[in-house]
Amino acid sequence: MAPEPPKREEPPKKEAVAAPSAAAPSEMKRETKAETTKKEEKSVTNKITVGHVHMSGCTGCLVSLADNYGGLLKILDDYADLVYGLTLADVRHIPEMDVALVEGSVCIQDHESVEDIKTTRKKAKIVVALGACACYGNITRFARGGQHNQPQHESFVPIGDLIDVDVYIPACAPTPQMIRNVCVAAYLLLRGTEDQKTLAAKFLKPLMNAAKRGTTACFCDLMYEVINQGLCMGCGSCAAACPVRAITHEWGKPQGQRDLCIKCGACYNQCPRSWYSFDVMNEFEGILELIDGAMK
Ligand code: SF4
Ligand code: SF4
Q1: 279 Cα–ligand 1 center, Å
Q2: The domain that contains 136 carries what CATH number?
Q3: How far is CA 277 from CA 61, 97, 207, in A?
Q4: Which one, 3, 187, 191, 290, has least CB within 10 Å?
Q5: What is the domain extent for residue 203?
Q6: Which ligand gives the minimal distance to the CA of 274?
Q7: Ligand 2 mean position to 203 CA, how many Å?
Q8: Mean pLDDT over residues 28-44, rounded?
Q9: What's the mean pLDDT when you consider all of the chain?
Q10: 255 pLDDT exceeds 90?
Q11: What's residue 163's pLDDT?
């Protein structure tokens, strides 16, 4: 007779209701608010499907996405199934998905890449240009004229030159938090309650407006939209980002040499005062609370 298998210990049962705490009234209020947020987000159950489509870039955006560590796992556990990603999922053809995070610009000599970006548009409900190369070309604008190692690659264009894009996440590379927030906001927009949809749409609005604004950005845009508006705080991020050293700082303010500018958009991307709309700032706290609540 085979020996009986050893009995496994039952895991401790989770408490259904949190133990009451002797908190101050203001703390109790906060707790109640947090519980309400939790209850609300529990009412949304279906995960969205997300894919990472890699065009031409340095892979820094993917590193930033992976840098979410626990945040990424939480997103994959509760909010999104990763259905496509060259290095992250073993899927060969671009499938149907709710959100496509597209990294990098497209080499127009590479027909496969051009087909891939068009397929992405057909298969994804929301196309997000992830990072500066996808939005404006960024450093890949610098790669014109045929490099030695890949002479067939002569011209890279931002994805918005080939397809309609719904959301931009400019910056080189976008922060892990920004990518996480966009993923959660997209989830709430597609699967949330009406209140959650409203807040998520507000969070995404400036990023959608950036996508409508177009695929070029250069020092002139920074000049008109930031410096001439008195919004520049002299942080120097634009000068540090410029790959051709077309920006210098004089008297604490950036000065551009337009004859050197290759219109890569790096300065515009990196400027903390350029593309994020201030209209949404008043409600930013509530929006971030919602996203943070959803991540608990
Ligand atoms: S000034 Fe420099 S960073 Fe800005 S768009 Fe021109 S080349 Fe790019
Ligand atoms: S990045 Fe923006 S705020 Fe900073 S110095 Fe350049 S223009 Fe000014």
Answers
A1: 27
A2: 3.40.50.700
A3: 22, 28, 8
A4: 3
A5: 48-216+275-295
A6: 2
A7: 23
A8: 47
A9: 80
A10: yes
A11: 98
Which amino acid is present at 97?
M
Whether residues 205 and 232 share a domain: the answer is: no
pLDDT tens-digit series, residues 145-171: 545 555 556 688 999 999 999 999 988
CATH of the domain at 252: 3.30.70.20
Q: Which of 41-45, 102-106, 186-190 has the lowest mean pLDDT?
A: 41-45
Q: What number does the ligand 1 atom closest to the CA of 242 have?
A: 3
Residues 143 and 190 in one domain: yes
Residue type, 187: Y
- Closest CA relative to residue 54, chosen from 89, 23, 80: 89
Smallest Cα–Cα separation from 155: which of 172, 142, 164, 168?
142
The predicted structure's pLDDT at residue 123 = 97
Å from CA of 61 to ligand 1 middle:
20
Identify whether 42 is part of a domain. Answer: no
H or E segment and range at residue 42: helix 25-42
Place of tokens 């500066």: 132
